[in-house]
Amino acid sequence: MSKPQQLGLVAITGDLFFKEEDLKDDTIWKSSSTDIAKQGESRTAILCDVDYIIPGHGPMFKVPATEKAKCPKPANCITVNYGDTFFDLCINKLHSTMQSCIAHSNIPNPDLIYPGQQVCA
């Protein structure tokens, strides 16, 4: 990926995207995929992260707003600092529940958190 100043973020995807038309006709890319599920996940990630795509077979295209609208909303997260507790970050700063924070945070033990980790609601 590169970020030319006037275009925003551009991904050179090769055959992850054959051409712009495979956004509407998924048989174009699925017919040659060796792992449809993984390729679908990768395509979604690229569509959500970039502004333009240079596909494997065709001209560069802008990611349509209709595709951007399908992207998951970013989680509400806070970075752990020295002295923080999971409870305080979750309840007092994120205004959430412990259950929600445990489900949305990649922290194996909420009683043992380290600076740099992310607590999410």
Question: How does the SSE layout of this entry go?
Answer:
Elements: E1 10-14, H1 27-30, H2 36-49, E2 52-55, E3 61-62, H3 65-68, E4 77-79, H4 86-93, H5 98-104, E5 118-120
Parallel strand pairs: 1-2
Antiparallel strand pairs: 2-3, 4-5
Report on the structure:
It is a single chain. The chain is α+β, with helices and mostly antiparallel strands. The chain has 2 domains: 10-68, no CATH class; 77-120, Membrane-bound Lytic Murein Transglycosylase D, Chain A (Roll). It is 31% helix and 14% strand. It has 5 helices and 5 strands. A 3-stranded mixed β-sheet has the order 1-2-3, with no helix packed on it. A hairpin with a 5-residue loop joins strand 2 and strand 3. The longest helix is centred in the middle third of the chain and has 14 residues, at 36-49. The protein is elongated.
Task: Provide a short characterization of the protein structure.
The chain is of the alpha+beta class and 121 residues long.
Outline: elongated
Could you give the order of the helices and strands? EHHEEHEHHE
Number of helices: 5
Identify low-pLDDT runs.
Answer: none
Oligomer: single chain
Distance between the termini: 30 Å
Strand order of the largest sheet: 1-2-3
Number of domains: 2
On the 0 to 100 scale, the average pLDDT is 89
Q: Main sheet, how many strands, which sense, barrel? A: 3 strands, mixed
Tell me the strand percentage band.
5-15%
Rg from Cα: 19 Å
Residue share in helix: 25-40%
Q: Specify the structural class.
A: alpha+beta
- Count of DSSP strands: 5
